[in-house]
Design a protein that fits this description.
Radius of gyration: 17 Å
CATH topology: TIM Barrel
Number of domains: 1
Strand order of the largest sheet: 4-1-3-9-8
Low-confidence stretches: 1-26, 61-72
Protein name: NodB homology domain-containing protein
CATH architecture: Alpha-Beta Barrel
Number of helices: 8
Helix content: 25-40%
Pfam families: Polysacc_deac_1
Cofactor: Co(2+)
GO molecular function: hydrolase activity, acting on carbon-nitrogen (but not peptide) bonds; metal ion binding
Largest sheet: 5 strands, mixed
Shape: globular
Bound molecules: zinc ion
Strand content: 5-15%
Keywords: Carbohydrate metabolism, Cobalt, Hydrolase, Metal-binding, Signal
């Protein structure tokens, strides 16, 4: 699968009502050191590898009627800018997942720094936020890189429980994993997997909510701020909004 600019969507309750709740984090810690693989409170489901063509649908309680389209291009494409803003306004927390989805353990801290800069610039342009959460692609990380990420203000987030959607699990398997949710679970899913968006999530989330599983954003489940900075307004497109000259998927750092 082609994975281009990668941003981490950290899902909350699938509803609009949570937007205000998630933007009043004043009492939260700024970050946690080290690599986090479980929630310290409540339960979170996360979606990697966006923004993708299913994102709008995912946010709209995952009703993706007829979602289909072209391969994902650049984060600055109009469609992706709109998808990101829609997710943000709907109460999702948006984190960094590198610029071109490379394995950060194959590069240096300088390489990683460049990737962080690219994502930070894009999110500042598009949303007016500086992310505070980072998920390494493939979960690949080491102590030096995690320490570097912490020094850049990031809480580094893995997962406790993989829905296995990106490695070919059946819908029934992924649904079974999610239906066993309990406090502390930090689920990994992918918004690029059509069946996740169109079947697994709508089939499972209402039932989890009904039996009292408290689904929150990852920042909430870890007790940290979702963003390092919030400007409070979106940027306006100009000539700098381009992916030209930046690392493409599979093209180095
Ligand atoms: Zn990924």
């Amino acid at each position: 699968m082609v994975r281009s600019v990668a941003l981490l969507l950290l899902i909350t309750k699938l509803g609009v009502a949570s937007f205000l709740e998630t933007t009043t984090p004043a009492r939260q810690a700024s970050q946690i050191q080290g690599y986090q693989t479980a929630c310290t409170q409540n339960t979170a489901v996360t979606f990697d590898d966006g923004p993708y063509i299913y994102e709008q649908a995912l946010v709209n309680t995952i009703v993706a009627a007829g979602a289909k389209g072209t391969l994902f291009g650049c984060i600055y494409d109009d469609q992706n800018v709109q998808a990101l803003r829609h997710a943000y306004e709907s109460g999702f927390t948006i984190g960094s997942h590198t610029w071109n989805h490379y394995n950060i353990t194959l590069g240096t801290t300088d390489n990683l720094g460049h990737q962080l800069d690219l994502v930070e610039t894009a999110l500042w342009n598009i949303l007016g936020v500086k992310p505070a959460l980072f998920r390494p692609p493939y979960g690949a990380q080491n102590a030096e890189l995690v320490s570097y990420l912490n020094s850049r203000g990031y809480t580094v987030v893995g997962w406790s429980t993989d829905t296995q959607d990106s490695v070919g699990a059946t819908v029934a398997t992924s649904e079974g994993i999610l239906n066993a949710a309990t406090a502390g679970n930090l689920f990994l899913a992918h918004e690029t997997i059509q069946t996740t968006v169109q079947q697994v999530i709508p089939d499972t989330i209402p039932g989890l909510v009904a039996r009292g599983v408290n689904l929150v954003t990852v920042d909430q489940c870890l007790g940290v701020n979702p963003y390092q900075a919030v400007r409070g307004s979106y940027g306006e497109r100009d000539a700098s909004w381009t992916c030209q000259g930046t690392p493409a998927p599979g093209q180095g750092f």
